[in-house]
Amino acid sequence: MNNNWLRLSLFAICWWGSVAFAPSTSVSKRISTGSSTSLYGVRSAVRRARDSLLSKDRTDKDLKDGIAFFYDRSSKLWEDVWGEHMHHGYYIPEDRTDHVQAQIDLIDEVLKWAEVDDKNPPKNVVDVGCGIGGSSRHIAKKYDCKAQGITLSPYQANRGNELAKEQGVSDKASFQVADALNMPFDDSSFDLVWSLESGEHMPDKTKFVNELMRVAAPGGRVIIVTWCHRDLELGEPSLSKKEEKILAKINRAYYLPKWCSVDDYCKLLEKEGAVDIKREDWSYIIAPFWKAVIKSSLNLKSVVGLLKSGFSTIRGAYAMLLMLKGFDAAAERSAAVIGGIPTVTSGPAGQGLSD
Hints:
This protein is of the alpha/beta class. The chain has 13 helices and 8 strands.
């Protein structure tokens, strides 16, 4: 059986011619009242700790609330140590140590791979699962375009807007709490739909892809970068118990639903009308990232920051060892998929691009 079972997958849908779920009532209340991550009281914290220890399945609401809480608590620490980009780096050569630049290079290499360039620059971009907005601001500066980012985390949205103002791009880049599965945008609003390492948080992958395609304008592009497990072999009903067990541990730490494969995404894209879909393995490009992150945490500043950030962040740091284990065992891979979307569809407006 192919043991390449855990994949960070890069998907780009080029339409020649979409961590963010709906904020729950409690999250919305926190935003409106301006309160901090005290959203979770003692009773809620005890329940989450109990459910975590028992590995109880999480509801969509649990996932939404947990994701917002996790990133509210951990984003400042990440920025203090790694800067504004909350994603893997591009490690060519593999021994490079300029990690911040490696993260920027990943953005640029993804754009190049998807054939987004100065000859055909985007004008309107949406960053789905934007973190604190590093990709959005970089793309806005690079192409002198407008960029809107959405996230579940009020901290991330606020910090993204603060950084946009500090960097002099608040007229180009803006951020808000919104729902990747029900985005607050009209159909065909963006000529570049960008989702960098947020798709793994989506409990409904079909709806996720549907929404990305819905807001993409004719002649635009959809680019997805996300974690996936390996494709199943012919006749293989599921991952092995060992594989499922490791994935479950990672899911507990990062508030993830069940994973899908690269092949699953290809089928979803085909269903949405994508054409000329192709895929490429980028595993070796991002593999050194986890070792670099773990190494960066081995200092007093990072340890103190972890302790201040709380249990969920500490557990997330532990999960890095699981991710590293996957790479060391040749179990994690990065795949690239690209496809085109017809610019003409039949039937009612949008039919063929979304169900």
